[in-house]
Design goal:
14 strands, 6-stranded antiparallel β-barrel, mainly beta, Porin, 358 residues, 2 helices
């Protein structure tokens, strides 16, 4: 549990939102024919969030004002409600945005009909080009801050990965099965013992992600798991042991360096779960005829802590690898011989699973 508390202490490392008047240099990735909808190459990783308002600025001054209507880690879509000069809003154009307070829009439906803009130089009052604004919102000024050459050079031209931020639920499964059998017999005499030498570990899990990636908890997800384990083995003298385990796990995953919605990239994560369950253990004597058969039932508790990588396609299909340290304590009730036993199981594991997000 102390490891889990340590993870929670690291929460301040998560980036906070942009404040009003902060600026970013951006590149327009796509723009609609009307110039009223555009996509830029900045997103939650740069501090943007759905509902942000901003001015779009070039060296000549302000060219538009809009609101963020959709955001992913590395891209965002903006609805332009005031267009000053459409000629500057084109694919691959570079400009800066300045975060502004939210602007009130008039509720008078008779005034809400807008005139579509065309990519020509704009003259006259910019208020005539978009949705009428409430009093006090006429604050666009050509004297506003301008984009510098340093801002332009800071722009990253690399392609940005896709995101599946809208897929907040995930199911995954892992399977480890062997179906061996064993036979033991002595060199003299006719004693022969047959037993299963098999093992299976079947697990199903679910993970829930945050819907709003701007929140401090967006790098964390909630995890629930269910596992069935059965192990059969046989000693050289025919003694047979069977252990059956049903286990439930609850915990969290932390994605410290990348948001968990990034597609087509490997996402590192840290993992912690607390596990509880039930166990049944039985023993058959084999050649030790004097040793009676026995069985016992009990409860289990333990934890898993480790890390690994996830990978998702844009369709939501994915895979994950986890390398963890697993510890389990088994506390038994009295067995058929009247004795009480406690058992500890611990060590490293490597787990592989396939998943689907929706």
């Amino acid at each position: 549990m102390k490891y889990f508390i340590l993870l929670l202490l690291l929460l301040p490392s998560i980036a906070l939102a942009l404040e009003v008047d902060e600026k970013l240099t951006v590149r327009v990735v796509k723009v609609s024919d009307s110039k009223k909808t555009l996509m830029i190459n900045r997103g939650t990783e740069d501090g943007l969030v759905e509902g942000d308002h901003a001015k779009f600025i070039v060296t000549a001054g302000i060219v538009a004002r809009g609101v963020c209507i959709k955001v992913s880690p590395t891209r965002s879509v903006w609805s332009v409600y005031r267009l000053v000069n459409a000629d500057f809003i084109t694919n691959d154009s570079v400009m800066s945005i300045k975060i502004t307070p939210a602007v009130k829009i008039t509720k008078d439906e008779t005034q809400a009909i807008v005139q579509e803009d065309t990519p020509t130089a704009v003259t006259g009052d910019p208020a005539n080009l978009g949705i009428p604004l409430a009093d006090g919102a006429q604050d666009l000024s050509a004297a506003d801050s301008k984009t510098t050459n340093a801002d332009l050079k800071a722009l990253e031209e690399n392609e940005i990965p896709a995101s599946i931020v809208e897929k907040t639920k995930e199911v995954y499964g892992f399977l480890n099965v062997s179906g061996l059998t064993s036979n033991t017999k002595t060199d003299v005499g006719d004693q022969s013992f047959n037993n299963s030498q098999s093992f299976y570990h079947i697990g199903l899990g679910g993970e829930l992600y945050a819907q709003k990636e701007r929140e401090w908890y967006s790098h964390f997800s909630l995890v629930g798991e269910f596992s069935l384990m059965r192990e059969n083995s046989q000693a050289h003298n025919g003694a047979a042991v069977t252990n059956e385990l049903t286990e439930f796990g609850f915990g969290t995953n932390w994605h410290p360096t990348k948001l968990p919605s990034v597609a087509n990239e490997f996402i590192p994560y840290l993992h912690f779960t607390f596990n509880v369950g039930t166990v049944k253990s039985s023993y058959t004597a084999g050649a030790n005829a004097g040793e009676p058969e026995s069985s016992a039932n009990g409860g289990t508790s333990g934890f898993s802590i480790g890390g690994g990588y996830k990978f998702y396609t844009f369709k939501g299909f994915g895979a994950r690898m986890l390398f963890d340290y697993y510890m389990r304590t088994e506390k038994y009730k009295e067995d058929t011989g009247g004795e009480v036993f406690n058992k500890n199981v611990a060590g490293p594991r490597l787990m592989l699973a396939i998943s689907y997000r929706f």
